[in-house]
Amino acid sequence: MSLSSFFENPERLNRWIDIAQSSFLPLLKGALLYSLTIAIAAFFIGLILAVLTALARLSGIKPLIGIARFYVSIIRGTPLLVQLFIIFYGLPSVGLMIDPIPSAIIGFSLSVGAYSSEVVRAAILSIQKGQWEAAYSLGMTYWQALRRVVLPQAARVSIPPLSNSFISLVKDTSLASVVLVPEMFRKAQEVVAATYEPLLVYAEAALIYWVICFVLSIIQDRIESKLDRYV
């Protein structure tokens, strides 16, 4: 069927409109309740892992540096999909069963932690030594200087790459469908299985992803502007 004949077929066009209307809310619900929730939870847990890993790399303590390097290497050297399969389908074979949503959050958190640790480490290293020395001259301890002086400035430096990581994470949550999480892409697969209209439904899902990421990019710009006072 050609494109022109498709639009000249009112029955097919009306069917697409009906499917789009009926599937929009389930897809949006999957995006807001699961995709975004998992992404936010995984990002904040991953950010904590990233800071701890970066501080371990900068600590000068060899065992901590070795553990941090191994963690980053194993996560960066294996596909995220494989990590999710190991957590959800592999661990039950040794008696450790984890529900779909926690499995997805664990998998995504480990991934965010490993990749973002390099961003955080680079941001901390970008702060001039004079900032540390100024903090010490005011009587601050290492942790006070880190929390009050260095991390706020490092946060500004790391916001653009971390924001991009979060936006990528939102899109990566579609992988959670393989561990049975009812997020937006899995909802789309269910609608396609019932309607046999993959082009329409997957295009609708792509549109929702795009709108969410567009809104997130606006939020990113505002956060960057707010943190400019630390530069």
Can you tag this structure with a few keywords?
single chain, 231 residues, mainly alpha, MetI-like fold, cell membrane, transport, AA_ABC_transptr_permease_3TM
Structure description:
This protein is mainly alpha-helical. The protein has one domain (9-228): Orthogonal Bundle (MetI-like fold). The protein is 81% helix and 0% strand. Helix 4 (80-90) packs across helix 5, helix 7 (142-172) runs antiparallel to helix 9 (198-227) and helix 8 runs antiparallel to helix 9. The protein starts with a helix and ends with a helix. The mean pLDDT is 90.
CATH class placement? Mainly Alpha
- The end-to-end distance, rounded to whole angstroms, is 58 Å
- Major pleated sheet: none
Low-confidence spans: pLDDT under 50, at least 5 residues? none
